Amino acid sequence: MNALLIVCGLGFISLVAEIINLKKGLHIAIVLGLVVAVAAVIGDWNTSATFFNNMLIFDPFSVAFTCLIIVVGIFWFCLTSPFFIGESHQTDRTALIIFTMVGGIMMVSFHNMAILFLGIEILSISLYVLAGSHKESFFSNEAAFKYFIMGSFATGFLLMGIALVYGATGSFDTSEITMHIEGHKAGLPGFFYVGILLMLVGLAFKISVVPFHFWAPDVYAGSPTMITAFMSTVVKIAAVGAFYKIFGLCFFSVQMSVLPIIQGIIILTLLVANIIAVYQNNVKRMLAYSSIAHVGYMLLGFISGSVKFEGILFFYLASYATTSLIAFGILYAIENAKGSTSIDAVKGLYNQNPFAATCMTIALLSLAGIPPFAGFFSKYLIFGSAIEADHIMLVIVAVVTSLVGVYYYFKPIIYMFSPAQASDKLYLSAVQKAFLGMLTAAALLLGLLPEWIITILS
Amino acid sequence: MITNLFYFLSFVAVLSALMVVFSRNPVYSVLYLIITFFAIAGHYVLMQAEFLAVVHVIVYAGAIMVLFLYVIMLLNLNRESEPHKSNILKFAAAICSGLLLVVLVGSLRGTELLKHSEAGEVSSTMGGVKNLGKVLFTDFLFPFEIASVLLLAAMVGVVMLAKAEKKTNL
């Protein structure tokens, strides 16, 4: 709970820093503030208290996800100092990123639909602007506009869904809704199910699964690279967390009614995202499709209804966020040096900077699901729990598509290790090197000791 | 009396909503949209939600509509500059929105179930200003306060996008 207030406060501090001209130390101050917030949120562990008349709940699930959001945020801030320092609007950008995290924390700790809605809106509105924060770039403008139009459209669906669910159950409170559903299983009106359906559409937009993914590749490819990294890590954690809290916990007893739709979404997501990713010549766009595909795998675990799913989901998101942060961090350095993120830009990376190439290789191998990296165990656990729940067909589709995935993840790796024509060195600052090294070590450690993370939540 | 008023307001709302879609001139569309909003505000009053009715008129018919008119005038929309949409796209859009309409209308058939459940019980003063204010500052205090972060984020974003970049010294 205090973590949310601290993060909110950091946003205000960064805005005030503009007025009183304290821009120099702002970046470090924000990182330190976030560290304090992590300490505060760990202090809430095992208290399971609700706050503000049952508006927010900080149970182990919320605490773990809040912690993950802030920790990933800290790493993100440390990797992206060039995006802020020396740029115009440094304080505004910092404040918007912080507000996005506020929205994300609300999305994983809500206990009331009003908070879910406000959280999604705070997160989205800050992101619309951040996607367009390279004002002179045409693609950045396009990304912001597309994201804005699509996102507000999806919000409309979500809001209509919440209204219909409220009409049928008479409450915004998630546990009261659950209780009402349990008590009136036979007599729920038809529009309750339509409400669930509309909420599914709205949230599916936010987690960007096929067929609600059309905005994602353009937005991911057009936004500034580090904003893309933020979207595919922090925002994804928040959105998937909110999706689970709604459909896994609040609507648990009527989950069967949306199950066929979610199964269809999973098959479509896995097939479409993985196959289109093969044809991409831009690493950033390829990673965008890969992030869509990874949500498909997460949903596969979701429908298996395993009791350990909370832990597995947490582990999956932690390993995915770690590895994609490495990949985007190196891509960002490449983009700064060569002005492009196409597959030709990564050519000969091993000769230019062996450290970056090694980190990138480990990240891509982990995303592809090659043992012994984190990505392998997250996929393995998901497939295992889906088989236990007798979703054999879905698992076959998932295994085949992740083999397709191996192909497109290896493409940049092969380019990286092939000799380059121009042999200019790629420069990484000491801070970037240190944090990339830490993230790579984390990707290895998560792969070797997955039980550490999974048992936190189960 | 109230029933007649309901039918009158509904008729006006549906008719003007259709005119929004069918009128050729975008400025007329916006003006018809204002009429639609007023008719819906009338419905709120019939349901004893005075506060919602007033806010609806101020926010939608007032602020949003002025914004719409400005945008239309600034963009200078006319038929020549209208982007061409393919027939397949129009067809798909019509089917999708038609299906959504069918689902929404069909779903409202279950409403009679609510009359007998506690969720359907609504006191007549529920939408009043007094009640709303009380709820907003007690139960829903946190959403009310955190909405300020939302507004602040939107404001910072607008300033950031609209402010001219400082020219770099050459």
Helix content of chain B: over 70%
Distance between the termini of chain B: 75 Å
Strand sequence of the main sheet of chain A, in spatial order? 1-2
Say which CATH homologous superfamily of the domain at 1-76 in chain B is assigned.
NADH-ubiquinone/plastoquinone oxidoreductase chain 6, subunit NuoJ
Mean pLDDT of chain B: 84
CATH topological fold name of the domain at 1-76 in chain B: Four Helix Bundle (Hemerythrin (Met), subunit A)
pLDDT < 50 runs, ≥5 residues of chain B: none
Strand content of chain A: under 5%
**H/I helix tally of chain B:** 6
Globular, elongated, flat, extended or rod-shaped: what is the shape of chain B?
A: globular
| Total DSSP E strands of chain A | 2
Largest interface: A-B, 47 and 36 residues
The global form of chain A is globular
Structural classification of chain A: mainly alpha
Gap between N and C termini of chain A, in Å? 22 Å
Q: Which CATH class of the domain at 1-76 in chain B is shown?
A: Mainly Alpha
